[in-house]
Amino acid sequence: MNELTCVIIGGGYAGINAVKAIRKSCQGEMSSRTLRVILIDKNPYHLRKVLLFKLAVGQEDITIPLNQLFPEGVEFVQATVTNIAAKERKVLYRDPAGTEFAMNYDILVVAAGSVVRQPDPSQGGLALDSQDAARNIRDIWMANLRKAVQTKNAQERQRYMTIAVAGAGISGIETSAELAYVVRAEAEKLGLDPGAVKIYLLNAQDRLFKEGPAKVGMKLERSLADFGVTSLHGCKGLQETEGRLILSNGQTLSVGLCIWTLGLVPHPMLRSVGLPLTEEGYVIVDASYRVQGAPGVYAIGDCAQIVDPVTGRTDGKTCKEGNAQADRLGKVILADVEGHTAPSHKPFTDFFCIGLGPGQGMVWTRQWGLDIVLTGKLGWKIRKYTWDVASLLK
After folding, report:
1. Is the CATH number 3.50.50.60 carried by domain 121-262?
2. Of 8, 9, 13, 86, which is closest to residue 333 (Cα–Cα)?
3. Which of 253, 272, 294, 347 is spaced 20 to 30 Å from 100 by Cα?
């Protein structure tokens, strides 16, 4: 009996689900080898990144210690990966003290994830890209409400009570909806008119939710309007300076805060570790997540460009794709180790969940050629369930 060392880079959604799936598929199933699993991440916790907006409105803890997710059977190394020597099957990394190390692997899974796309520093505002940024956003709008109470200038009061969210993907939608609910509630506590709180959602597209049919996008927009969010289509935020936000359509908004939610890009670390990448920075893999020219190396999640060989459709960058990729990866690795045929890629079902503030959500799926939409509390329960499943809490 000899040992198979499997190293997973990244404790995000794809990484922790890969750990679970590989252990489930391989432990006790390999004919002649035992499995050793090592997880590398720069933090000692799993960050529930899709819930950053929760920190922008309150004090909710959105981290889970990795040793709590995997109390046994998984080794954890807190470090930053600096290089992958594919020919030697070594991963090089630096610990928090700056000491360099090298680790041998038989199987390496790259699940480094993504980072939030940054606006140019000259554009002003704040990107919702980290826990610190989220807390800063919360502090600013709360301070603005206190200023609104104190000022006698009606225009300044309105500016302090106005927030723009630039970027209308799912993150932007969920952020704006949550802010509309919480900021209005806080304004009322301070004696301000909650109806005066204005949340603008800036959408570069001609409608919301381009992933689904127009009628669902319209329903989503109406729901947001009911919760206090005004959607502005066909325009981008260009620059926010001293409370004046310039839009791409030539208009300006007077705002107390501009929040950028501009989507995701592959983790920049990938450009320095020696793996083949697309022009955009995604790891190049085959239909079974194997990295080109790097035996024993696989990549899944936000950091990989995964294309269905039958349909030509590129996998999305949401938790549902990452979870499904991780589940299949466990079976692929077992098949590769044992010399069997890897399971084929299964097309994803159209399915999206969107949170619309506390206790409210919307779910859309297409089944049997029909659009199925669930809203309200049921939509919220399903959305919360997907968040929890992605973080191994269910």
Report:
1. yes
2. 8
3. 294
Domain with CATH 3.50.50.60 in the chain: 2-116+265-348, 121-262
For the beta carbon of residue 58, count every other beta carbon within 10 angstroms. Answer: 12
Q: What is the pLDDT of residues 215-270, one digit of tens each?
A: 999 999 999 999 999 999 999 999 999 999 999 999 999 999 999 999 999 999 99
| 291-334 residue pLDDT tens | 989 999 999 999 999 988 878 888 888 888 899 999 999 999 99
Question: Where do runs of H (alpha helix) occur along 163-252?
Answer: 170-189, 214-226
Query: 5 with 26: CB under 8 angstroms?
Result: no
Confidence grade of residue 346 (pLDDT, cut at 50, 70, 90): confident
Q: Could you tell me which CATH number the domain at 2-116+265-348 has?
A: 3.50.50.60
Give the single-character DSSP code of 49.
G
> Which residues lie closer than 8 Å to 367 by C-beta, 6 or more apart?
349
Residue 169's Cα: distance from chain center in Å? 11
pTM of the predicted model as reported, rounded to 2 decimal places: 0.94
Q: How many Å apart are CA 300 and CA 277, to the nearest integer?
A: 13
User: In 3-state terms, what secondary structure has residue 298?
Assistant: strand
Compute the C-alpha angle 29/332/323, nearest 5°: 105
Q: Is 335 helix (H, G, I), strand (E, B) or coil?
A: helix
Sign of torsion, CA 31 34 394 9? negative
According to the 3-state scheme, what is the secondary structure of 104-172? Answer: ECCEEEECCCEEECCCCHHHCCEECCCHHHHHHHHHHHHHHHHHHHHCCCHHHHHHHCEEEEECCCHHH
Nearest Cα to 7, choosing from 98, 63, 86?
A: 86
**Residue 229, both tokens:** 């969010």
Residues 6+ positions from 179 with CB-CB distance below 8 Å: 53, 56, 57, 141, 163, 165, 199
Strands 283-284 and 257-260: unpaired
| 3-state class (DSSP) for residue 40 | strand
Q: At what angle do helices 214-226 and 170-189 cross, to 10 degrees?
A: 10
CB 300 within 8 A of CB 329: yes
